[in-house]
Design a protein that fits this description.
253 residues; alpha+beta; five-stranded mixed sheet; 7 strands; 25% helix; 9% strand
Length: 253
């Protein structure tokens, strides 16, 4: 029986399908979706970045206050000098040696705690605003951090004078409460804080770490202190900030 061949029809080559364009509404939906996602991501990225800077400041502060402990161990418990005075009444201080004839009078490399540190970059917090006008007006630019004058027996309200700063030496470390505040990141909006190496108890801390700053304590620890808590301590007597052993009650200024 003869085989039957299928009929061969005329096959047409398929052409390209017509391209479908996005409508204006679809484009707007995509743009809005991207904007929402970016808006959600930016605060997270900003928070993560800030936390990273805070961690660096924690590490810096801990290294410096531990260096102060090592210095005290070598000098019969006496802390380094706080660096108060303009111009410095005493040239040797925790973060500098004052050499008026030098191009930069405040010599970081000759500070009292530097020999006990492995690097000098611990003196700067990455969150500090170093590129604005207020920073440029500071007298001391070598450090973000400053020490409370309680550490060398100073007290707010008294005029500078011979002996008021314990003759250029810190008080004994053992005289302070462990949670007392030795080191702070001052308020960048007040460049006068950096007129020397120290701050008074009435001067404010920064708020560049989520409305607070990192402080270093006499016991060797570092912590984040919210600004509102700082103000409570600042206005109390005695307190963690007002803890000058030379005060009348032996506990605060």
């Amino acid at each position: 029986m003869p085989s039957i061949k299928p009929a061969i029809g005329i096959m047409q080559k398929p052409g390209p399908l017509p391209r479908r364009a996005f409508t204006l509404i679809e484009l707007l939906v995509v743009i809005v979706t991207i904007a929402v996602l970016v808006g959600l991501a930016l605060p997270t990225l900003s928070t993560t970045k800030e936390k990273g800077k805070r961690v660096v400041s924690f590490n810096n502060t801990r290294q410096i206050v531990l260096a102060a402990h090592l210095y005290a161990n070598d000098f019969h418990e006496a802390l380094p000098y706080c660096g108060a005075g303009l111009p410095p009444l005493y040239t040797n201080a925790w973060c500098f040696k004052y050499e008026p004839s030098a191009a930069e009078p405040y010599q970081l490399g000759k500070g009292q705690v530097l020999p006990y540190l492995t690097a000098s970059n611990v003196f700067h917090c990455p969150a500090e605003r170093t590129n604005d006008f207020l920073f440029s007006t500071r007298i001391v630019k070598i450090t973000t951090y400053l020490w409370e004058t309680t550490s060398c027996g100073g007290s707010g309200g008294k005029p500078y004078g011979p002996g008021i700063w314990n003759n250029g030496s810190g008080l004994k470390l053992s005289a302070f409460r462990a949670d007392g505040v030795l080191q702070i990141e001052p308020n960048e909006d007040d460049p006068n804080c950096w007129n020397d190496g120290a701050v008074e108890f009435h001067e404010d801390e920064t708020m560049h770490h989520n409305q607070g700053g990192v402080v270093g304590c006499y016991g060797g620890s570092a912590e984040w202190m919210k600004f509102r808590d700082w103000k409570l301590e600042q206005n109390a007597f005695p307190s963690r900030i007002n803890c000058n052993p030379n005060a009348a009650d032996g506990k605060g200024q």
